[in-house]
Amino acid sequence: MIRICIVCEGQTEVEFILRCVTPHLMDYQISAYPSLLRAPSGQHRGGRVTVERLVNFMTHEYHHADRITSLVDFYGFQDAADRTRQQLEQAIFDGVVGGKPNADPRYVMPYVQMHEFEALLFSDIEQFQFVLDGWNEKVRASLAAVKRNFETPEHINNSRETAPSKRILEIFERRSYNKTEHGPIIAQEIGLPTIRAHCRQFDAWVAALEAWGQPKKLPREP
User: Fold this and answer.
1) What CATH number has the domain spanning 2-116+200-211?
2) Is residue 86 classed as helix, strand or coil in its secondary structure?
3) Of 75, 181, 188, 205, which residue is least crowded by CB atoms under 10 Å?
4) CA–CA separation, 116 vs 104, rounded Å?
């Protein structure tokens, strides 16, 4: 069984890994577990994502598992500047591999989600019905309109006003939707296959995680 550490920037991503990704990877002989990004002191948990902070934390966690990756939002990077997702991932990779003696580059794979975790929830807007106090036909229509305007959920843009999470909060009038409470539930109800079908970059990441393992062999039929 291969152990994979998935560094997450917040509790929502931690719950998503536990509910959706960890059970799936068990079929590939992989024990994947989330680790919440934090300072060495144990304080400043989650958020405030920078390349340096991720590099430091992933370097610290490297030898606690067989492989290490991340699930952090592009939108949340405080030092993204004009860098692309791929450039950020490369900077994190270079920092971990270059800063850790004997680090094996085959087993380090930073992943930055475009544009944030909430984009994945647009894979099936019907599952927002689990926001019990806010779901109605107006909300459904508004969510559907957002989804129609973009090629995939991962194309929903990332300004302060139009990032996926901002759109969801606005549609629910900033009252009934709670990211930490509802996000993982909605994702679990959507299911990993549907999310992967709609989100190509996320799908490629999960496929790369699968490739680190080995699918279980089905028993032979008598």
Assistant:
1) 3.40.50
2) helix
3) 181
4) 28
